[in-house]
Amino acid sequence: MSANYAEWDLGSIYRRDDVDRLQIIFTAITALADVGVAKDLALKTLLDVSRKNAPRCSNWLAQTAAAGRPSLNPPALHTALANRNLAAAKFLARHSLKREIAAIADGGLFLAASEDDSESLEIFIPHVNVNKANASGHTALMVAAAHGSVRALNALLPLSKREQRDNGGFNALMHAISRHNEDALIVLLRDASAKEITGQASGNSAIELARDAQNKNIQFGLNPETARHFRPHEMVKARLEAIEISQVSSEAMVRADDGASKNKPRKTLRV
């Protein structure tokens, strides 16, 4: 009797959401190659399969991608995050119970911030306090600033305490400066306050840190033709000047309004 190869066609497996046949295929792959190959293959096919309305197959692939083997306890979402596999964690979070997401949301938030994954941030943010710090005093905003995660910064800034400091006295702005992340510095300076720039903690301020970094004449680039200088002090100073101009302008407008009110003719009531 000839074999019915159509039964082992992946399209047929996904249409029927036949996770048992899918597992048999991956067992064969593991026997012919190794677990690592099966894990990589599962991750590459995961997102495509998740669109084919095959939840059992998708969940099993996500578990395989996260841990190299199917595992239901702890939940696959937790295993994915423990292995820093954000692609699998992001998929699984969309199909997980709220309590499972909440249990690992803090770690998920920090991982998404470090990898600049704004989609994952949207998943984890509703379940956490974004200003909660880890043992080093770092917040997700600080992590995003240190890694130059621009999309993450834009997602976190409206919810974050910008002036919050870590155990070393650094705020997010200072992390961007110390790690020479110019793109992150541009985003943070857009609405930075004077206190955020000049306020001190543990003897540090962002303006002083920026001056020291620029004085070291740190040079970036693969060769002299593409090299450029990182000039954080000039950038921070420009923001301070903009704040001062805005304050002077606001004060002048207030004085002008007061003067106009005083010079305005008073209406008299005729009896």
Tell me about this structure.
The N and C termini lie far apart (115 Å). Strands 1-2 form a two-stranded antiparallel ribbon. Helix 7 packs antiparallel against helix 8. It has a domain at 13-96. The protein is built from 15 helices and two strands. 61% of the residues lie in helices and 1% in strands.
Task: Provide a brief overview of the structure.
It is built from 15 helices and 2 strands. It is mostly helical. Strand 1 and strand 2 form a beta hairpin.
Give the strand line-up of the largest sheet: 1-2
Rounded average pLDDT = 82
Order of helices and strands: HHHHHHHHHHHHHHEEH
**What is the strand tally?**
2
Distance between the termini: 115 Å
- Helical content stands at 55-70%
**Approximately what portion of the residues adopt beta-strand conformation?**
under 5%
How many helices? The count is 15
Helix/sheet category? mainly alpha
Main sheet makeup: 2 strands, antiparallel
Residue runs with pLDDT of under 50 for 5 or more positions: 68-72
Task: Give me the Rg, rounded.
Answer: 27 Å
Shape: elongated
